[in-house]
Write a structure and sequence with these properties.
- The protein is an all-alpha fold.
- Helices cover 85% and strands 0% of the residues.
- The protein contains five helices and no strands.
- It is elongated and about 65 Å long.
- It comes from Bosea vaviloviae.
- Keywords: Plasmid.
Length: 110
């Protein structure tokens, strides 16, 4: 049982890494066209440059506000949320279910 749990712990780390990798790609693909076209956002970020401390926090707030308020992102958000749910199911939950089927483990050990 200890070996099974140890193996499962390692598998979960791998599934998590794969999920994060695919989630990053999904988000990039969904939001990049919107970010590329967000001229006002980038002009605001450039305008803030060189005005003293707090630049990172100000830019983070500017970008967060844009993501929260930009209506053209609604379909991209829905696409990402749906994709993340599907990825989680496929890469983590289904793998975990398969790895913890005791009847399969018993048959392999017999």
């Amino acid at each position: 049982m200890s070996q099974l749990l140890s193996s499962l712990r390692e598998d979960v780390k791998g599934w998590e890494q794969e999920y994060l990798s695919q989630a990053l790609a999904l988000g990039r693909a969904a939001f990049k066209p919107h970010l590329d076209a967000a001229n006002d956002l980038w002009v605001g970020c450039v305008r803030r440059w060189g005005q003293g401390s707090g630049y990172r926090d100000d830019i983070a707030g500017e970008v967060q506000g844009w993501f929260d308020d930009e209506p053209s992102l609604n379909s991209a958000r829905q696409s990402v949320e749906s994709g993340l749910t599907q990825l989680w199911k496929e890469l983590v939950l289904d793998s975990l279910t398969q790895a913890t089927r005791f009847e399969d483990q018993i048959a392999e050990d017999a």
